[in-house]
Write the structure tokens for this entry.
Amino acid sequence: MKPAKFNIDLFSNHLFWDVDIQKLSLKNDKRFIVKRILEYGLLSDWIELNNYLDIEEIADAVSNIKDLDYKSLSFIAAISKRRRENFLCFTTQQSIISHWDF
């Protein structure tokens, strides 16, 4: 059973250090929230996100992100059983690879 109201305070503090978390809503900022959790979140953050969104909703939100890192893309593609080619970040990769690839 999904919780009635989205509570951003249940996620790790380091995910949204640069924004006012009280202004975030799952309805308006779904892609931003999902991207941060995929790239920088802990397992507990992923579990909490799954309390609000199912895998298909998460994959749909990620499918239009242009700059998702390779590990996060591979993870969401595997768990949603979608091909990596179906995600925009795979087809529009950056032409210059950054030096710090963690």
